[in-house]
Amino acid sequence: MKKLSILGATGSIGMQTLDVLRKSPGEFELLGVTANSSVEKMKDIITEFNPKYLAMMNTESAKEIECFCREKQFNIKVYSGMAGLIKIATLEEINIALIAVVGMIGLKPTMAAIEANKDIALANKETLVVAGEIVMKRACEKGVKILPVDSEHSAIFQALQGNDIKSLKKIILTASGGPFRGKSAKELENISVDEALNHPNWSMGNKITIDSATLMNKGLEVIEAHFLFNCDYDNIQVLVHPESIIHSMVEYKDSSIIAQLGSADMRLPIQYALNYTCRKNEIAKSIDFYEISQLNFEKPNTDVFRCLKLAFKAGTRGGVMPAIMNAANEVAVDLFLNKKIQFLEISHIIEDAMVNFEEHMNTELTIDNVINIDNKVREYVLNKNS
Length: 386
Ligand code: NDP
Ligand code: MG
What we know:
Blueprint: E1 2-7, H1 12-22, E2 28-35, H2 39-49, E3 53-56, H3 59-72, E4 77-80, H4 81-89, E5 96-99, H5 107-115, E6 119-122, H6 125-142, E7 146-148, H7 151-160, E8 168-175, H8 193-196, H9 206-214, H10 216-229, E9 236-240, E10 246-252, E11 257-261, H11 267-275, H12 289-292, H13 306-317, H14 321-337, H15 345-356, H16 367-384
Helix pairs in contact: 2-3, 4-5, 5-6, 6-10, 6-14, 9-14, 10-13, 13-14, 13-15, 14-15, 14-16
The structure holds NADPH dihydro-nicotinamide-adenine-dinucleotide phosphate and magnesium ion (MG).
NADPH dihydro-nicotinamide-adenine-dinucleotide phosphate binds near residues 13, 35, 105, 125 and 207.
Function: Catalyzes the NADPH-dependent rearrangement and reduction of 1-deoxy-D-xylulose-5-phosphate (DXP) to 2-C-methyl-D-erythritol 4-phosphate (MEP).
Pathway: Isoprenoid biosynthesis; isopentenyl diphosphate biosynthesis via DXP pathway; isopentenyl diphosphate from 1-deoxy-D-xylulose 5-phosphate: step 1/6
EC number: 1.1.1.267
């Protein structure tokens, strides 16, 4: 039986991971879970899964959960804060940690889990964006597996199985195009938060849903793919594919292409990462090709969706630039969700931060420096926009 922890258990990926566990009786033992402040969801998780360890980032929420456990006589050790997240990511008993917190907050627990020799099922793309070079190098040195959960990267990972990565010519990263595919910049001027949260194919957490609407999600995924598969940016092509059936493709040196297809259901890549290398349980719906009848492809419009262009720029620039871009994006998305800025301002804020922090490009790439610059960029963006 595999023993695991889920960081971000109350989120979209976390809850879908719980469903994978539900549908795999006797295969997994859930030992640790974390959340930020979703107390009610955490109570439900405790009642159903009775994990041994738990952490709430928010201290007050941790206290509430502790009271609940005492009252209902659950024998669970409750931690809080970043130290708590790290504790759950590094539990001695676990084999694998599924990291599904949102944002670069996942970086420290991911690094700690690698140091503790735990395999990682990684949904938290921001961690790879801000420090992919350090994360992948350390995982390699420690012999720890980084198993992608992001559907595109899982698709690439699957398409690479049994092939020599040296014969990889190109990664074709598919994108649904989000809710505003085909729109002009003018049409995007006054769009509302609700419109941006209305993704056509996927149901996800708010932050990634806004990232999908700006195409920053694809930008983050380009950088994620660069680090996961050691692929030059010139050899990563983004392809808009509105049906979200082909989750990504790999082209080999002989120009042969291998794609992974499936319904738009995150439980598929989650289950693959947790069970790697075997395929089990019919978790998602089969695709009916008669019903779909056609698949479409387009070039992304990076003049309108400027975040994608900025991400290629940040990735190619390397060093701490992806961390600068990511911090500005995290703050800008939050400001947009709180109706403090317009949709199109997101890309302007990111670009401004990338220009302003260019002088920090000599910063040595270490975890501490990445966290330091992340804090500085957040402060800068917040000061300028509130
Ligand atoms: P959600 O917003 O739905 O969930 C985020 C989880 O992280 C929740 O458990 C939340 O706890 C916790 N969390 C939020 N902020 C903090 C914090 N400051 N400290 C500790 N924990 C925190 O996000 P998603 O599940 O949508 O996404 C998670 C990650 O997976 C992201 O990096 C995203 O890009 C990636 N991903 C998501 C996909 C999806 O389909 N959703 C697809 C591919 C990748 P609480 O509930 O208490 O707030
Ligand atoms: Mg994805």
